[in-house]
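Collaboration report, partner site 2.

Our partner group contributed sequences for two proteins of shared interest, and the home lab folded both. The records are reproduced in the order in which they were received, starting with the first partner submission.
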Amino acid sequence: TLQRRWEPMRKLLFVSALMTLLSAHAYAAGCDLTVVACPGGEGASNDAGTLDCAGGETVTLLASFQPAEDIADFAAVDGILTLRAAGEVNEAATFWDLEVANASVLSGTQRRPATGCADYTNPYLPPGSGFAVGAAVRGPRMVRIACTAYRAGTLAVKAGQKIFAFQLTLDASTSAESSGGNLTGCTQPVSITLDSLTPGSLSNAPTTVLKSGSQMLNSVVFNGGQLPAIAPPDSLRK
């Protein structure tokens, strides 16, 4: 019958369409926030564990991304992060007030670390590249962090290319538990989420704002904090 003759053709068209779809999504565009290493590197994790407040531990967060489109003249990334603390940052958790009380412990760099991120392009090799970061309290338990990393000159990058974005560093030397500090709440559960990362082009060509994980998740937790209830990146879905 006509229906039976059409069935093999229908299956062929379905398989062809599926292969086209898969080839178009062979990578997962997005941004990741990890500790120890970039996704795929040994020890890469979204859990920073328990912060050694008494020992004045320094923790480095690593941001990386895969753009959703080719960018012929990539020049910078802008990141927006949200810190959520269990206690109020102007009372029981002053350690996490990164705007005023503890602004000095927040720093960062555009430089890719010497280990852990070798599979990610380092776009900031030219002299004159740089980084800037700042924070503002946006609620009793919320701090917004904004940062930018930029390169001198431009770089052509491809959709799905693994690219290093920036490092953020926090240290516990100002905590009440440390011999040199008096700020409270260092041991409280905290999460930091990379809410958005925007690749920038020198010509201001539109680029996709990345808002979810690519290879891992776009959040890091401390002290038993809970990762936000967000969908896993495509690469982790079964």
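Second partner submission, folded after the first:
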Amino acid sequence: MMMTTLPRVMLLAPQFWISGTVTLARELQLGWPADRQPVIACPTRSGRPSTQWGRDVGAIRRATHTSWKPDIMGTAEGVLEVARDAFDLVHVTEPDIPAAQRDWWHDTLERLPVPWTLTLNGNTYPDVDWQRIINARRFTGVVWHTPGHVPPELRDARRPLRIVSLPRPYTLRHDVSAQLPRLAHPVFALERRESPVIGTHCRIAPDKGVALVAALARHIGACVCVDGAPQAGAMPYTLTIQRSYLPEDDHVPAEARWVSDIGPGRVSYMGSFTDGVVVAREHDVHVSATRLGFSAGHEYSLLEAVDAGCVIVQPEHMTESGCPLNQHTYPWDRRGVVGALLEEHRALSDAVRDAVLAHESWYDQSRNRTLVAEHHDPGRLVRAFMDEVLAVI
């Protein structure tokens, strides 16, 4: 029997400690009507809250830490019981989970007691057992696919699937239409007067291309700022030639902050954060360098940079045809840490120079904000997705 009213929805977020999946879950909540707003649930094997949740910015040391907590947590059995008793639909925000828990996670999905749907976040997911997901008893076959890779196991599945291509939901939060004063920070007081700050904020991992961004300090003499919590072994200070620690302040502890002179420019690493829009307001030009094949489309860091009023530079594969931003693009090129420093990526350098000129000539940010507000509107996207879901449950 087809359901005609909006179901009660649980958002099942297995990796509620990676910034993108946390933001996705929170933005999805905003897309439902207030009287039917879903809750975010995250099961753990022990049933105890993760020590990675609820950290303030001074306690965040790695990209696996977040300042947010899910609404519901417990053992898989406890979460499944709540889903059965109180919800009509479960939407899974991420198909993958670390290898040590992968069998447990697939078993949890197979035992979901109500119909469920899935988000694909544009990644390749080489370790997901897609056959177990496709054959799960209550899986509806409806998939919210954000721009990027579609696993061939889903694309060529014998079972009919509804793969609904929709952008990531996002709600603009900050009014910067009048170029409100930037955050005052002693590190950038001099550079703000002399030249724009080139910045990126993201999970510091090789797939995010931080080496390419930091190397702009050497190749075009830019002041570059990198914000974000690192994954193990991915700290951008592998790029440093001379490093000096900055004094501790209320924003970031001293051990997580440093400045490096690289050629004519310099790189400042400002550590972790809890609000991407706030740190993006410390940047004038936002540069994305996410690896081709890792992801595609507008990442949350880019949407936060638009929210903050930055001029946008990003690889061609990260653009979205349905949202023609006022932006500067370049063809992505693979570079390691050493290669990024020794060999200039000229197309990237040229795009950043053009972005700096746009900033200096009074960049109009209203168009990008209007486009993002329409294209990534959570309410519109949830309605489009639920039309597909209601057709099968």
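Feedback sent to the partner group on the second submission included the following. Confidence is low (pLDDT under 50) at residues 176-193. The longest helix spans residues 346-360.
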